[in-house]
Amino acid sequence: MSKVAVVYWSGTGNTEAMAKAIADGVKEAGAEEALLEVSNFSAERIADYDGVIFGCPAMGAEELEEDSFEPMWKEAEGKIKDVPVALFGSYGWGGGEWMKTWEERAKTAGAKLFGDGLIIENTPDDNGLADCKKFGNDFAKSI
Question: Is the pTM of this model over 0.90?
Fold first, then answer.
């Protein structure tokens, strides 16, 4: 059985709702899931999992959250070479530029990036939550 960590930061609850649905999809695929807020995770733990799904909303000028998530991500970049990784998050403005930049960073770090990052504008509705569940399921099945 694969072990997948879903690691996220959420300010308004939108990305948290996405993370919970993604974790449900991972579990539904038969993998062991760990749903972890970024404050309960360190890059050192990446090796404990067969894959990691990271979630962070767009902040400021379409950037990762700078106080908690960005420091963890900087450390993770040195630990994700050849690791299956997926990215997700919510946004309230802009066109998703933060996700494109984040994907490039993951690729540069050598991660085995799963598809395109999943982004949802504002609060995920029922269709958005279904997309999140499918995203987690598909990721778990891919590793």
Answer: yes
